[in-house]
Specification:
The chain is mainly α and 183 residues long. The chain has one domain: Four Helix Bundle (Hemerythrin (Met), subunit A), CATH 1.20.120. Helix content is 68%, strand content 0%. It contains 7 helices and no strands. Helix 1 packs antiparallel against helix 4. The longest helix is centred in the middle third of the chain and has 29 residues. It starts with a helix and ends with a helix.
């Protein structure tokens, strides 16, 4: 693990909260931007929810559900949510900050996580050859992989506390609505 990726891993959550404060200060939402942004937000939430119900962290290599299409569906879902919130905010500054944070924080973390998976799961190399890192393949995978919600576990969803992403998104949308109504 590189020194920067260790730092990135530690600061990504606190940095996210700091970004949220800046986000609300820079946001200039409208009802139209909220409606358009909600498409990305909902898509991201769904992908994250599906992914969290398939992953057994540090126990088994997840290759079913959304993991059959992309190796990083949780990050893809977060990216879609972020893009949706950028659209909702109607602020170029928010978009620039999001892109910088993604490249500076999340790409190093993804690289380290993949290094861990390579060391932990010998089958990761074959999986990595078949499945793209971030942008999902659009064709249904062939072979033994399960591509749909088959194998989804509500227990895993709850164990990973993925409902916090939904609660956070609803809270952010509520603040944006209040901003439209009050300002």
């Amino acid at each position: 693990m590189t020194e920067w990726s260790q730092i990135a891993r530690r600061i990504r959550v606190p940095l996210g909260f700091m970004f949220a404060v800046l986000y609300f200060w820079l946001a200039r939402p409208s009802w139209r931007s909220m409606a358009m942004g909600s498409i990305g937000i909902v898509a991201g939430l769904l992908i994250r929810a599906l992914a969290s119900g398939h992953v057994r962290k540090n126990e088994a290599l997840a290759t079913s559900g959304p993991y059959a299409y992309t190796r990083n569906p949780l990050y893809l879902g977060s990216l879609l949510m972020g893009l949706g919130f950028c659209v909702a905010a109607r602020s170029w500054w928010v978009s620039v900050i999001l892109v910088v944070m993604f490249f500076a924080i999340y790409l190093p973390v993804i690289g380290d996580e993949e290094a861990f998976l390579r060391q932990t799961f010998p089958e990761f190399e074959e999986y990595a050859r078949r499945v793209p890192r971030m942008l999902p393949r659009l064709v249904r995978p062939s072979g033994h992989e399960k591509a749909g919600p088959a194998g989804f576990s509500w227990q895993l969803y709850l164990k990973h506390r993925e409902y916090n992403a939904l609660l956070g998104a609803v809270a952010m949308l509520a603040v944006l609505i209040a901003r439209i109504e009050l300002f």
